[in-house]
Design a protein that fits this description.
This protein has 246 residues and is an alpha+beta fold. The chain has a single domain (17-197), classed as Cathepsin B, Chain A (Alpha-Beta Complex). The protein is built from eight helices and five strands. The protein has helices at 24-33, 52-62, 68-81, 95-98, 108-115, 124-130, 200-211, 226-238, and strands at residues 41-43, 138-142, 156-158, 168-174, 191-197. It has a five-stranded mixed sheet with strand order 1-5-4-2-3. Helix 2 crosses helix 3 and helix 7 packs across helix 8. It starts with 23 loop residues before the first helix and ends in an 8-residue tail after the last helix. The model is unreliable at 144-150, 203-207, 216-231 and 242-246 (pLDDT under 50).
């Protein structure tokens, strides 16, 4: 039916950081646990309706959450066409998952029952499936790690079947709508958000801000250029003074 009606995903586009709404809960959590990520990415808010992984991928690739339905369908089709890639008892099972003793995933039947159902829990199998539905990207999943940032089995680069690209989509495991209560509280990572790269212009200005910190300036104020506007946006979300980017 997809081929008959020529239904396909749009071309991947560059999503700018000033075109998304910042996920304030993710910013607060990252500030306490993995602040280095905030130097490189903006966690963008997506709706938490049980389809957040597909919404996150849709927003990061196309600048719009609305393609989550098609991404979900294509992921389900992919998992049904190539069951051995998702079956840990099969020899063709995705090797990075197979050799990771810390990564506990469901069996194939349970995974398929979840992936074809709206609102079901998404795991690394689902992340893997989204890479195989003609998005031509790899996914780098990031988790809040208080000490060693690579220690978590959820922090993993996932490369799809036959995907050859240098473009990596970054998705963060984070907390959903529940309020983040601080660094000493348990983290119930039950939500996905896309991580939008901070532009080189913004990063350069942030470095300039750090260099001038000893002069008593916490924020850089420039003329009304676009770089100055981006820097103001970056300062607001990183310092926790704003939830949203207009």
């Amino acid at each position: 039916m997809l081929q008959f009606y020529k239904i396909m995903l749009p071309d991947v586009k560059c999503v700018e950081e000033d075109k998304v709404t910042v996920d304030a809960t993710s910013v607060a959590t990252l500030r306490d646990h993995s602040p280095w990520l905030l130097d490189h990415f903006i966690p963008a808010a997506v709706q938490g309706d049980g389809k957040c992984l597909f919404r996150a991928v849709s927003l990061a690739l196309y600048g719009d959450e609305s393609y989550h339905v098609l991404l979900h369908l294509l992921t389900a089709v992919e998992s049904l066409l190539y069951p051995s890639l998702y079956d840990r008892t099969a020899t063709e099972y995705y090797q990075p998952f197979k050799v990771d003793a810390c990564l506990l995933l469901s069996d194939y039947n349970s995974f398929v029952c979840d992936v074809v159902r709206n609102g079901a829990y998404a795991d690394m199998h689902t992340v893997f499936g989204t890479q195989l539905c003609d998005t031509n990207t790899n996914t780098d999943t990031l988790a809040h790690v208080p000490q060693d940032r690579w220690a978590s089995p959820m922090t993993k680069l996932v490369v799809g079947r036959g995907v050859q690209t240098e473009y990596a989509l970054n998705v963060l495991w984070t907390i959903g709508a529940s309020e983040y209560r601080g660094a000493g509280t348990p983290l119930n990572t039950n939500h996905f958000v896309p991580m939008i790269s901070v532009s080189s212009a913004t990063s350069a200005q942030v470095e300039e801000e750090e260099d001038s910190a000893q002069q008593g300036s916490s924020d850089i104020t420039l003329d009304g250029s676009r770089d100055a506007q981006k820097l103001s946006i970056y300062n607001r979300f990183k310092n926790g003074s704003s939830n949203e980017i207009d």
